[in-house]
Amino acid sequence: MATLHLMVGLPCSGKTTLAQKLEREQSALRLTTDEWHVRLFGQDAEEPEHDARHGLIEAMLWNIASRALELGTNVILDFGFWAREEREDYRSRAKQLGASSEVHFLDVSADELMHRLAVRNSQPSQTSFYIPEAMMKPWIAFFQRPTPDELERRE
Known about the structure:
Blueprint: E1 3-8, H1 15-25, E2 28-32, H2 33-41, H3 50-70, E3 74-80, H4 84-96, E4 100-105, H5 110-121, H6 133-142
Parallel strand pairs: 1-3, 1-4, 2-3
């Protein structure tokens, strides 16, 4: 049975690093939205079109992921999944395809996230976004931490 792995956490929490590790260990297809987004649209985090573009990429990556799951391939969605409702939606989709699902939550303090953000912003990248500090702070407040039941593997 294929498994859908959901990487849950805020920017700079270490999601992509863990996803890369799981990719090797689980023989999984890793789909990281930011890598696609930056390559296609550049550093557009502050542009009005950013969210619509991001949503379009996530939808396209889900099309790839769902086919891979149907074929029996493990998939890692490195999207962030900030809201419980979004996590539950993707877990339900996996179940409908006959796949199990797991949540991988990277719990990092706000102070550490801000420190990591400063480091990341000082090193321009083609795979991750430059994020102004002023954008990150409201995201920290909005983020819905997974509950213990969400962290359990679902068959």
